[in-house]
Amino acid sequence: xxxxxxxxxxxxxxxxxxxxxxxxxxxxxxxxxxxxxxxxxxxxxxxxxxxxxxxxxxxxxxxxxxxxxxxxxxxxxxxxxxxxxxxxxxxxxxxxxxxxxxxxxxxxxxxxxxxxxxxxxxxxxxxxxxxxxxxxxxxxxx
Length: 142
Known about the structure:
CATH class: Alpha Beta
Largest sheet: 3 strands, mixed
Shape: elongated
């Protein structure tokens, strides 16, 4: 059974983080430059939440707020379920589906050690299936 640690091993556990006082516009520019859909929000170097493109669409644009003046701490998502590297991919799929979320922070001993997206989960599932298919082909041919 594949685990979150498999995803982190494949993609790395580097996270992009910004301070809660950063403007939404600066956060969006960073996300565009890095080609990512979310960014970790910190206060005094500690994880406090996550900003996603969905947060921007629903909490800035739809409310007529200014991206130049709004700070990310005002619109970030907080209280996301925390997962561990030992959690299974199936557990993550269940959490994401039930909570209608696309990102999960990964913690090891209360320290943020990565973030996974629904895309990461789907990719890992596909890779796992391809591995199984190759093993079955090999077994049939032997």
